[in-house]
Amino acid sequence: MTTTHGFDGRYGRLEAIWIKRAHRGPMDPVDVANLLEGQGVAGSVDRSRRRQVTILSQEAWAACMRELNATLDPSARRANLLVSGIELARTRDRVLRIGDTRLLIGGEVTPCERMEEAQMGLQAVMRPDWRGGAFAQVLAGGSIHVGDRVAWE
After folding, report:
1. What is the model's pTM?
2. CB atoms < 10 A from the CB of 38, how many?
3. What digits encode the pLDDT tens for the residues 57-94?
4. Which of 20, 18, 3 shows the shortest CA–CA distance to 100?
5. Correct CATH for 11-152 of 2.40.33.20, 3.20.20.140, 3.10.20.90, 3.40.50.720
6. Which of 4, 60, 93, 107 is 20 to 30 A from 153 via CA?
7. Tens digits of residue pLDDT in 4-16
8. CB-based contacts of 5, cutoff 8 Å, min separation 6
9. What are phi and psi of 39, to 5 degrees?
């Protein structure tokens, strides 16, 4: 497992992994997960061919929380992965490496009304600059661990 703790703009870190076992169900935090090529996070529901994995930036989430003067846990976003040190905005068609896996960014995750249920005003502050995160397809699967290095190819 390759990790980095000093971000220099080239590398980031996988901060958290969540698995959703049921539609509208809780987001279960795990330290290790398997990404399945062409499918998504093993054991997680609500995957589609296009939207196999969802990724949230820790920095974008923190900016939203500052703007709302709120302290929600990032799991409230309901994404599969939380990364830090990597900018997700406008990265469609780029390949993101997490550990030994490869993810093709398909586009922006548009924040839905569930964000308003979590915190009034959250949906609106997540709209600019892809703050709602990105969705991706798994090009090369494998095991990922919290602490893995994250980098653009």
Report:
1. 0.89
2. 10
3. 999 999 999 999 999 999 988 899 999 999 999 999 99
4. 3
5. 2.40.33.20
6. 60
7. 334 455 799 999 9
8. 13
9. -130, -55
